[in-house]
């Protein structure tokens, strides 16, 4: 199935973007991702964005060039950077006469029934009034012991909460490969229908720069989302401008269950 067919079928789409895809030398990607979200919305889709980038946005402003391992510093950076990050989304969406609505979540918010229901009501209401929800982990209060760990996991849980049809995981890499893509002989995998197909591939997990992702976290998120009936499309942020108009290198994870 092509990217276009996946997008045509979906009524509610969650788009997840990582820190490295929209900060530093890749800052311009944010406008392209917003333009993609707006094109989906114009086609009658409901769109939710799960966006990392708060800590990576703040660090250069106060002279940090490496990821801090100090929890209090990370929390402070998240507090500074989240406001800056939302301002970037606000400016970008204003080009389309739209606005973002911020939702910050912790693990407890999605683990407990009452707070999970509150989060869903806020999400649904934002969509209803024509605002694009932009969700991030509440890193200013999250602890090392109780956190999602990466926004791939958060995006998967949000897609299940919102009963999304499609989760688009945007990465620096354009697909899941048979081995790390930098190695000779690595081949992109177009479709994953079951975990059995992944037995023979070599997967690496990384934590570089300000991101905490990697192929392992993308795969874990895809497994969680597809287990609840959500289709997952993994591709690169660089592919976004053509994602809804042409096929490009990607990996499609078929849902292993159906909500029908």
From TrEMBL:
Gene Ontology CC entries for this record: cytosol
A GO MF label: ATP binding
Transmembrane segments: none
InterPro entries per the UniProt record, alphabetical: AceGlu_kinase-like_sf (IPR036393), Asp/Glu/Uridylate_kinase (IPR001048), G5K_ProB (IPR041739), Glu/AcGlu_kinase (IPR001057), Glu_5kinase (IPR011529), Glu_5kinase/COase_Synthase (IPR005715)
Assigned keywords, A-Z: Amino-acid biosynthesis, ATP-binding, Cytoplasm, Kinase, Nucleotide-binding, Proline biosynthesis, Transferase
Keyword Protein biosynthesis belongs to the record: no
Biological process terms in GO annotation: amino acid biosynthetic process
Domain Aspartate/glutamate/uridylate kinase: 11-233
Secretion signal span: none
NCBIfam families noted in UniProt: proB
Listed name of the protein: Unannotated protein
Organism field: freshwater metagenome
């Amino acid at each position: 199935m092509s990217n276009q067919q996946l997008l045509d079928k979906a009524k509610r789409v969650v788009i997840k973007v990582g820190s490295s895809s929209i900060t530093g030398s890749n800052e311009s990607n944010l406008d392209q991702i917003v333009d993609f979200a707006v094109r989906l919305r114009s086609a009658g889709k409901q769109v939710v964005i799960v966006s990392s980038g708060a800590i990576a946005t703040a660090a250069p402003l106060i002279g940090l060039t490496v990821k801090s391992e100090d929890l209090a510093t990370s929390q402070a950076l998240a507090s500074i950077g989240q406001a800056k990050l939302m301002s970037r989304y606000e400016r970008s969406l204003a080009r389309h006469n739209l606005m973002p609505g911020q939702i910050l979540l912790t693990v407890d918010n999605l683990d407990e029934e009452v707070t999970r229901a509150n989060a869903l009501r806020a999400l649904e209401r934002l969509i209803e009034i024509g605002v694009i929800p932009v969700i991030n982990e509440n890193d200013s209060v999250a602890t090392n012991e109780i956190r999602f760990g990466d926004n791939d996991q958060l995006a998967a849980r949000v897609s299940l909460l919102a009963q999304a049809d499609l989760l688009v995981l945007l990465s620096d890499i354009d697909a899941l490969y048979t081995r790390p893509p930098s190695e000779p002989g690595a081949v992109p995998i177009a479709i994953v229908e079951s975990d059995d197909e992944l037995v023979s591939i070599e997967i690496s997990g990384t934590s570089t720069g300000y991101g905490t992702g990697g192929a392992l976290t993308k795969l874990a998120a895809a497994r969680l989302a597809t287990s609840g009936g959500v289709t997952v499309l993994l591709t690169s942020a660089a592919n976004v401008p053509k994602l809804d108009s042409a096929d490009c290198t990607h990996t499609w994870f078929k849902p292993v269950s159906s909500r029908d």
